[in-house]
């Protein structure tokens, strides 16, 4: 049973990582990346490494999306002015 | 076969899997709703895993998700969603799912745990999750 | 180099890596086996020092010096980012317009902020007992403060965030780790040796220096993340104009 969970979590991680690569728009990619982070946290936990899972949750659930989206906003602002 | 771990596997396949599909395709609104759903269900997955492995310390992961998950959704709602684009598809399911799934997971866990500090912690996580679910739904639907 | 040669070099590199990777895995112990020579010794050592969370015992006691390196990496990279994202001479700042936030969301933000802060501090303080510690808790604390931006408003965040203090906190956290290591030397033992009394197993006051090092890391990480995000927020919301460097390069 425990191994079934490991396989499921790893499959989720593989699917989320592939989806993150296939999405090309950075802002939407950030959403998939956040789900990849959640999947990794589950994978670490079912492999009995909750400390690593907690680190992943802390960094991946709010901090990384915030940094990515702020960067996207800054870059788009610069581009928009360039076109004017 | 451990029913708690079975429940966690079921949530992973039936809840997080479809969320990943919705988060990886379609418009921004649908993706944010899926991300929100995924974090709320993930919290329940961690509660079930903690009980299934018999390790009370793992409950801390659920505690952290209960506050950081909604925070992540609010980041997306603030910086990714278009304010004029109305309700994203699926948003009206968020509150009902959280309102049903949270007690359905937390109450059996409380009964198994018995009275004590651990139960208080479970109830706090449940309340944080409900509050987070309602607030994020509000943020996602503000359109 | 032509495209063909480049692809050839890439293919050779990928094949060699794949071969080495597979060879390395052939000799690995099987998944989920019962033979854990390192794990058994690490658990024994952490129980001897009355640290219930073996991972914390490894990170802050048995391999405390490695963690000093990791902490310094974060310190240096945040410092580098602050320098990179400073306001350039040809850029000007503009006060960001306050955005409309629903009242229900604002209320949630004001309730969730203290709850998140408390959970972060709890994770830092219980690093020697349960999963978590300075890094994880520090990130949660920093996220808690930013609930003011994402659920309330940017000016509200600016009011409770005297950035200078957080910059000092970042440096103090890093310095505290280094100085705690020196305490080991002064006590006549090695650098970063666990010289404090080990306390009672599975209570808050256990693990000797482990909780203190966790607190130092927690202070450093929380402050570093606040300083880092402050730079990102200023760039995205306040600074306008001045991609003069880009124009010159073009």
TrEMBL record, chain A:
Sequence ranges assigned to domain MrpA C-terminal/MbhD in this UniProt record: 12-76
Keywords: Cell membrane, Membrane, Transmembrane, Transmembrane helix
Membrane topology listed for this record: Multi-pass membrane protein
Residues annotated as transmembrane: 6-23, 30-47, 53-72
GO CC aspect terms: plasma membrane
Keyword Repeat among UniProt keywords: no
Subcellular location: Cell membrane
Protein name: DUF4040 domain-containing protein
Species this chain originates from: Streptomyces morookaense (Streptoverticillium morookaense)
TrEMBL record, chain B:
GO terms, molecular function: monoatomic ion transmembrane transporter activity
One Pfam family named in its UniProt record: MrpF_PhaF
Protein keywords: Cell membrane, Membrane, Transmembrane, Transmembrane helix
Topology with respect to the bilayer: Multi-pass membrane protein
One GO term describing the cellular component: plasma membrane
Predominant cellular place of this UniProt entry's protein: membrane
Name of the protein described by the UniProt record: Multisubunit sodium/proton antiporter MrpF subunit
Localization per record: Cell membrane
Membrane-spanning segments: 32-50, 57-81, 93-112, 119-140
Keyword Cell membrane in annotation: yes
TrEMBL record, chain C:
Membrane association type: Multi-pass membrane protein
Coarse class of the protein's main subcellular location: membrane
TM ranges: 72-88, 108-129, 135-154, 175-193, 213-234
InterPro entries: CPA3_antiporter_subunitB, MnhB
Record flagged with keyword Transmembrane: yes
Entry's Gene Ontology cellular component terms: plasma membrane
Domain Na+/H+ antiporter MnhB subunit-related protein: 111-226
Membrane among keywords: yes
Entry keywords, A to Z: Cell membrane, Membrane, Transmembrane, Transmembrane helix
Compartments where located: Cell membrane
Family named by the database record: Belongs to the CPA3 antiporters (TC 2.A.63) subunit B family.
The protein's name in its UniProt record: Sodium:proton antiporter
Species in which this protein is naturally found: Streptomyces morookaense (Streptoverticillium morookaense)
């Amino acid at each position: 049973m425990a191994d079934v969970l490991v396989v499921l979590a790893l499959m989720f991680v593989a699917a989320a990582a592939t989806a993150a690569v296939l999405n090309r728009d950075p802002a939407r990619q950030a959403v998939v990346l956040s789900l990849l982070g959640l999947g990794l946290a589950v994978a670490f936990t079912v492999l009995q490494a909750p400390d690593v899972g907690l680190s992943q949750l802390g960094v991946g659930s709010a901090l990384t999306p915030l940094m990515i989206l702020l960067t996207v906003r800054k870059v788009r602002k610069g581009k928009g002015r360039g076109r004017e | 076969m451990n029913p708690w771990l079975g429940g966690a596997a079921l949530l992973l396949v039936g809840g997080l899997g479809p969320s990943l599909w919705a988060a990886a395709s379609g418009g921004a609104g649908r993706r944010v709703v899926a991300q929100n759903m995924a974090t709320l269900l993930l919290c329940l997955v961690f509660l079930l895993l903690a009980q299934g492995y018999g390790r009370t310390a793992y409950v801390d992961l659920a505690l952290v998700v209960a506050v950081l998950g909604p925070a992540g959704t609010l980041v997306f709602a603030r910086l990714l969603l278009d304010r004029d684009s109305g309700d994203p598809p699926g948003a009206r399911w968020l509150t009902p799912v959280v309102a049903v799934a949270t007690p359905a997971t937390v109450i059996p866990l409380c009964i198994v745990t018995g009275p004590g500090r651990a139960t208080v912690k479970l109830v706090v996580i449940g309340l944080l999750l409900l509050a987070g679910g309602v607030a994020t739904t509000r943020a996602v639907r503000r359109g | 180099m032509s495209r063909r040669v480049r692809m050839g070099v890439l293919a050779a590199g990928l094949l060699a890596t794949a071969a080495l990777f597979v060879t390395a895995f052939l000799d690995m112990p099987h998944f989920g086996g019962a033979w854990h020579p390192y794990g058994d010794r690490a658990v024994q050592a952490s129980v001897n020092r009355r640290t219930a969370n073996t991972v914390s015992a490894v990170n802050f006691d048995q391999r405390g010096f490695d963690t000093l390196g990791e902490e310094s990496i974060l310190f240096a990279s945040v410092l580098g980012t602050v320098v990179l994202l400073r306001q350039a001479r040809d850029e000007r700042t503009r006060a960001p317009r306050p955005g409309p936030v629903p009242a229900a969301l604002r209320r949630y933000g004001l309730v969730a902020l203290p709850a998140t802060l408390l959970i972060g501090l709890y994770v830092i303080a219980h690093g020697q007992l349960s999963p978590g510690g300075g890094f994880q808790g520090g990130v949660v604390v920093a996220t808690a403060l930013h609930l003011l931006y994402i659920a309330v408003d940017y000016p509200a965040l600016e009011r409770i965030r005297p950035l200078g203090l957080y910059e000092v906190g970042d440096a103090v956290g890093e310095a505290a780790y280094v100085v705690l290591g020196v305490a080991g030397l002064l006590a006549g033992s090695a650098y970063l040796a666990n010289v404090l009394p080990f306390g009672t197993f599975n209570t808050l006051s256990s693990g000797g220096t482990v909780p203190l090092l966790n607190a130092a890391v927690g202070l450093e990480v929380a402050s570093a993340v606040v300083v880092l995000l402050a730079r990102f927020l200023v760039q995205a919301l306040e600074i306008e104009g001045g991609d003069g460097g880009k124009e010159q390069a073009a």
